[in-house]
Amino acid sequence: MGDMTMINLIWMILISSGIIYAGMNGRIEVVTSSAISAAKSAVELSINLIGVMCLWLGIMRIAESSGLIKIISYFLQPIVGLLFPSVPKNHPAMGAIIMTLSANMLGLGNAVTPLGIKAMQQLQTLNPKKDTATAAMCTLLALCTTGFTLVPATIIALRSAAGSVNPTEIVGSTLIVSLFATILVLIVDRLCQTIFKR
Length: 198
Description:
The chain is 78% helix and 0% strand. It has helices at residues 3-24, 28-66, 68-83, 92-105, 109-124, 135-146, 153-161, 171-196. By secondary structure, the protein is mainly α. The protein is globular.
């Protein structure tokens, strides 16, 4: 069963069980009003989010044009070299990995996905077994999953669009949590590489 089919099945079960439960309790009108209210809220949130996301993406474009991304990449290069010892220093994969991690650190979730795919494609060129992920691929996937973030731009944008009084108050906690998650995932990654000799 494909991933999308499984997700669709899970959603169908959740929706069906909610409708059945509401019907058994004589509250079927709650389902209708909640669905309409949720759809309205989703559209309002999306519209509000457009302006905030444009602002953050504009700031990030300025950061890129001013060389801030290159500065971050420069400082990341020695660390990335240690994390990905199997990737040659001047290989295009190294640049793609650095850009992916830089976008992750700036909280640009939407930008990380295409950069991560590009990095994986470059890593695949170094892969002797094309049907098996390399240690470098697993490390990159783990780092993108935990997503160490200095500025959680997307979360700030969502909180702002949802009407938060102080949308930036989560910066400190996000930084601490993402840092510890990244350290933990790197330890597990190294343990798995040692155990399975990847």
